Amino acid sequence: MRERYLRTDWAPVVAALGLSLVGALLVWSTTHTWAGSALAVRHLVNTAVGIVLALVLIGTDVRWLRAAAPWVYLAGLVGLATVLTPLGQTVNGSRSWLFLPGGFSLQPAELAKIGLVVGLAMVLAEGRDPYARPGWREVLPAWVLAAVPVGLIMLQPDLGSALVLGVLTIGMVATSGASWRWTATALVGTVSAVVAVIRVPLLDPYQVDRLLAFRDPALDPGGIGYQTRQARLAIGSGGWSGTGLGEGPQTQGGFIPFQYTDFIFSVAGEELGLLGAGGLILLLGFLVVRGLVVALRCEDPFGRLLAVGVASWFGFQIFQNIGMNLGLMPVTGLPLPFLSYGGSSMLACWLALGLLACASRREPRTVPSWPVRSNLPR
Questions:
Q1: Which residue among 24, 134, 222, 242 is least packed, with the fewest CB closer than 10 Å?
Q2: d(CA 120, CA 338)
Q3: d(C-alpha 375, C-alpha 247), whole Å
Q4: Distance between CA 262 and CA 166 in Å, rounded?
Q5: Closest CA to 321 of 247, 250, 374, 268
C-alpha cells in the first residue's frame, strides 16, 4: 500500500484541499452569526471525511476496484430508489434527500455519480480487445446502465444531476472508441429529453419557470429571478480585487438566499474580486485538465475511462454552476465542487479524486511465475 501512495499524483489532491479551505472561508463569510460559523465547521468536517475516504480509495488495488464495480453501481441505484419511498424527503421541490440520525442528510444522486463512472468503465473496458473499437454489445449496455439512474433521478425530479450523468456518459462512451454515430445519437437524445422534460408535465409549472428564469427573471420574480439578479449584482460589484472577505454588501446583507450552496461563486466574485474568483476558476480548471492528461497517459482502458468520467463530471458541473451565477445558464441546483456547502457533494467529489488518483497510478508490471515455452530451435 505504501508503494501505491508513493506512485500517486498528489497535485489534484493539493488543489482540491486549497479549494475546500477557501470554500470554508466563503461559507463563513455568508453570515457572521453562530449559524454561519457552524456551517463553516461542518464544511471542514465534510472535507476531512472526504479526504479520509479518498485516501482509502487511493490505497486500494485497482483490481479490487474493478471487482467491486457492479456493487458500487448497485449501491447507487439502491440510494436513488430509496428516496422515492416514504423514507425520502422533499427539499426545494425535489424528493432527493434522506434524513439520517444526528441531523445529517444524504443526497444519493451525488454518490450515484461515482457508481455510474465505475460501472461504465467496467462495461466499456472489460472483456474485450483494448485495441478494437467497441461495438453495440458494449455500447448498448453502457447506455442502459446510464439510463436507469438518470430515469430514477428524473422521477425526483433533479434535472441538474441527470444532466451530469448524461454528460459523463457521453464523454466515456466517446473516449472508449465507439463510433461517432453513438455519440451523435446520444447528444440528440439528451437534448430531446431536456426539451421533453420542459414541455411535458413531468416538472411542475413553477419548476419550469425556475429553469427559464435566467433568461427572463419576470417568470419567477420573487424566487430564482430575484436570486440571479442579486448574484450578478454581487459579482459585478466586486471589481478587480473585491470588497474584502466579510465586507461584501450583497453577501453581508443577506440579499442572496442560500448563498453558501449553489451561489457560493457570487461570494467569491464580490469579496475576492475578479482576481480571486479567477484564481478559483484556474484551480477548478486544473482538476479538469489534470483528469484529461491522466486519461491521455493511462495505458489501462479501465483507468482511462475513470479519468474521463471524472473530468467530464467536474467540467460540466463547474461550467453549469458558474454559468448560472453569471446568469448564462439555468439554475439547476448543482453545487460548485469543493467550494459549495454540502456533505454529499463534498464526499462524492473527494471519492472522484480518489478514482482519478487510481487511474494516474502506474502499477508495476508483474513477471509471470509459470514457465514460458520457447519456440526457438535448441
A1: 222
A2: 24
A3: 78
A4: 20
A5: 268
pTM to 2 decimal places:
0.88
Which ranges of the chain would DSSP assign to H, the alpha helix? 2-6, 11-29, 34-58, 62-82, 108-125, 136-154, 159-175, 180-199, 205-212, 224-237, 249-252, 264-271, 273-297, 301-325, 343-360
- CA–CA distance, 148 with 347 (Å, rounded to integer): 22
* Alpha carbon 313 to chain centroid, angstroms: 5
CA distances for 176 relative to 166, 270, 299, angstroms: 15, 42, 13
Question: Which of 95, 42, 6 has its CA nearest to residue 261?
Answer: 42
In what order do the strands lie in the sheet containing 94-99? 88-91, 94-99, 105-106
Which single residue is written with the C-alpha cell 450515484? 112
Length of the chain counted residue by residue: 378
pLDDT in tens, 75-119: 999 999 999 988 888 877 778 888 887 777 889 999 999 999 999
